[in-house]
Automatic annotation (TrEMBL), chain A:
Top-level taxon: Bacteria
Protein name: Uncharacterized protein
TrEMBL record, chain B:
MF annotations from Gene Ontology: mechanosensitive monoatomic ion channel activity
Transmembrane segments: 20-41, 62-80, 86-117
GO CC annotation, single: endomembrane system
Keyword Cytoplasm found: no
UniProt key word Chloroplast: no
Entry's family note: Belongs to the MscS (TC 1.A.23) family.
Role played: Mechanosensitive channel that participates in the regulation of osmotic pressure changes within the cell, opening in response to stretch forces in the membrane lipid bilayer, without the need for other proteins. Contributes to normal resistance to hypoosmotic shock. Forms an ion channel of 1.0 nanosiemens conductance with a slight preference for anions.
Chain coiled-coil ranges: none
Pfam families on file: MS_channel_2nd, MS_channel_3rd
Mechanosensitive ion channel MscS C-terminal domain residues: 180-260
Protein name (record): Small-conductance mechanosensitive channel
Keywords: Cell inner membrane, Cell membrane, Ion channel, Ion transport, Membrane, Transmembrane, Transmembrane helix, Transport
Length: 369, 275
């Protein structure tokens, strides 16, 4: 198998969104329609053979996450740790499904100073990291402050003693700012991580999964088996890459959630298999949905969380001038779309692709990469 | 006399019970198909992603016309002996009688047929016809039905398109321009009002970021009218959006010390005439 990992960061605007195979897309739409109309809709996991049960332990070893993190750090090093380019402002735009702390840890390791409040006027180090979230706060005073901040950043690039500034934030924060402020004029270049397609995912998983065979419940085929050109024979990974919007973190977590194993002593699924011990079955990803009775309020809340990142109840009230139903956050937590981290509410990383799907279908302005 | 009688006999086919059964079946199947489509399409449209909703809704009038033409095409040969001579004969005799009897209905039906292709309004569009403003919820053969913001359903005959202006707010698109109007004192400073009101729009959860936001100031006889114009991403949120812009806009202006004029003489009609 040829190595097929993306090896450099790409400019925002040139993201290659993986496309689902037509059959998978149609099947997913048909399933959604059945679920909504109540005509025999069921969870894909329910379609698995009776002899399957939830996986004991983890499907993917810790080493796969470590390799992924290392790969991301390498991409960041290559793009942002070259010769210091004074008087420049760059932006690093990430998907919300990227686990928190990856960029911050990389900055810490490489001695970049993190300006939590976003102040650019005290920049002393050669490179500084400034979060975008504070500039995207959707209140009138915060927008005035964001304009001042952008002005400071623009001025800082003119000073000879200023270092390179790296703004970072989620793709939703960036898109909101790009559409509603002059950030594009201040930032010289904006970069994002490239998409992982089915080839990259297959390669990544195969390198770490050992002798375990992954089979699709739907097709009963090995999802890692590849054709001569390196493309997986089964459509599972292509559909997974598309569902995860090309984010390997989300894709691997979805795969983990979809994994099941065959119970001991049960009837064999495949007569050719002499043993089922090394076979793990994967269902189609099962998307969590907003409870029907909650109507539109959850969509506004999810949209706000994507733009602003984790928020407390008070902060939600500031940035979302709507009367939200009592218990909304708990209801969304229950279905797995959001989670509480301390007193802050945030999108569940692995379910971000589903959240994005819900919002784009509802017509909300979405992130652009 | 004999010739007339023969001509009349030649006009019609011979009828049997089976002919009537066939006609009844065609009518029933057509009606059932129309009713099923009328039931299904709006519901399916609601389930589709927002960008496909209007496209799906607009299938209905075309489908209805198709079913109607198909049904007529099947029924006419069952009743009439279709020849050019008979066609002219029917047109001459029935045309005049029907013309008087269903003149208004026919005018509306023809206008409705024209409307399907000319598209002054489509299902799901927000239109204003005279004083009525609402969402087109049904395109019938004779009329359209609008659901207004007060949840009234207004039935308007298609024939109005011949002699009235039809104002279509979104024209088949998924969004429309919303305007929040304010009147401020013309003789007091209003520093940063444009920036302030643009921020109000940019902080609204209903805003479609990809569309422009603008603030228009215009002098009126006793005040300066200020219009904040922006697009919501969902047309059905337009009234919530305008409320949000108006409420937070008013509060922000007051907080900045900008004087809002509250003279009773300023009626909506005056504001419209100045806009």
């Amino acid at each position: 198998m040829t190595k097929s990992f993306p090896d450099e960061m790409i400019k925002v605007g040139s993201y290659d969104w993986p496309r689902p195979p037509p059959t998978s897309s149609l099947r997913a739409r048909f399933r959604q329609l059945r679920e909504r109309t109540g005509f025999g809709g069921q969870n894909p996991a329910d379609e698995a053979p009776d002899t399957l049960e939830g996986l004991q332990g983890q499907l993917l070893p810790q080493s796969i996450w470590e390799e992924l993190e290392a790969r991301y750090r390498t991409l960041l090093d290559a793009r942002f740790l070259g010769a210091t380019d004074n008087a420049s402002v760059k932006a690093l735009v990430t998907m919300p499904s990227l686990p928190g702390g990856i960029v911050e840890d990389w900055a810490k390791i490489n001695g970049l100073s993190l300006k939590q409040d976003g102040a650019a006027e005290e920049v002393q180090t050669p490179r500084s990291l400034i979060p975008l979230a504070s500039m995207a706060w959707r209140t009138v005073p915060a927008r005035a402050a964001a304009r001042r901040q952008l002005s400071e950043i623009a001025n800082a690039t003119r000073r000879s003693d200023s270092g390179e500034l790296l703004l970072f934030g989620s793709s939703w924060t960036w898109t909101y700012l790009a559409q509603t402020s002059s950030i594009r004029a201040v930032v010289s270049e904006a970069y994002c991580f490239p998409a992982y397609d089915c080839k990259s995912l297959a390669q990544l998983i195969a390198d770490h999964i050992g002798s375990v065979q992954l089979k699709s419940v739907e097709t009963r085929e090995d999802i890692l088996a590849c054709k001569d050109d390196g493309d997986p024979k089964d459509n599972y990974l292509a559909a997974l890459a598309a569902t995860a919007n090309g984010c390997p973190w989300a894709a691997l977590q979805m795969l983990e959630d979809a994994a099941a194993q065959q119970t001991n002593g049960s009837e064999k699924q495949d007569e050719d298999d002499s043993s089922t011990e090394n076979i793990r079955w994967v269902c189609d990803p099962s998307p969590p949905n907003i409870p029907e009775h909650l109507k539109r309020a959850p969509e506004f809340l999810l949209h706000a969380l994507l733009i602003h990142g984790p928020l407390t109840e008070d902060e939600i009230a500031q940035v979302l001038p709507l009367q939200l139903p009592v218990g909304l956050s708990v209801a969304l937590d229950r279905v797995g779309l959001v989670e509480f981290k301390g007193d802050k509410l945030q999108i569940v990383c692995r379910n971000y692709p589903h959240v994005r799907d819900i919002l784009t279908k509802a017509g909300f302005p979405a992130d652009q990469l | 006399m004999n010739t007339d009688s023969e001509a009349l006999m030649n006009l019609f086919n011979e009828f049997s019970v089976w002919t009537f059964v066939q006609i009844a079946m065609i009518v029933l199947v057509s009606l059932a198909s129309t009713l099923i489509l009328r039931f299904l399409i709006p519901r399916i449209a609601e389930m589709l992603p927002a960008r496909f909703r209007l496209i799906a809704l607009n299938i209905l009038p075309l489908a209805r016309v198709t079913i109607f033409v198909f049904a007529v095409g099947l029924i006419v040969p069952l009743i009439f002996n279709v020849t050019l001579k008979n066609f002219v004969l029917v047109l001459g005799t029935l045309g005049v009688a029907l013309g008087f009897a269903v003149k208004d209905w026919a005018t509306s039906a023809v206008a409705g047929f024209v409307a399907i292709f000319e598209r002054p309004y489509r299902s799901g569009d927000w239109v204003r016809i005279d004083q009525d403003y609402g969402e087109v919820i049904e395109l019938g053969t004779r009329s359209i039905k609008l659901r207004t913001a007060n949840d009234d359903v207004v039935t308007i005959p298609h024939s109005r398109i011949w002699d009235e202006n039809i104002i279509n707010a979104n024209n088949g698109k998924n969004t429309l321009l919303c305007v929040a109007s304010f009147m401020i004192a013309a003789d007091k400073p209003a520093d940063n009002i444009i920036e302030l009101l643009r921020d109000i729009a940019f902080t609204s959860p209903y805003l479609d970021w990809e569309k422009p936001v603008s603030v228009i100031l215009q002098n009126a006889p006793h005040a300066t009218t200020v219009q904040l114009k922006a697009y919501p991403f969902e047309m059905r949120d337009q009234f919530d959006f305008i409320t949000d812009l108006t409420q937070r806009g008013r509060d922000a202006l007051l907080a900045e010390g900008i004087e809002i004029v509250m003279t009773p003489e300023f009626t909506p009609a005056m504001v419209q005439s100045t806009g």
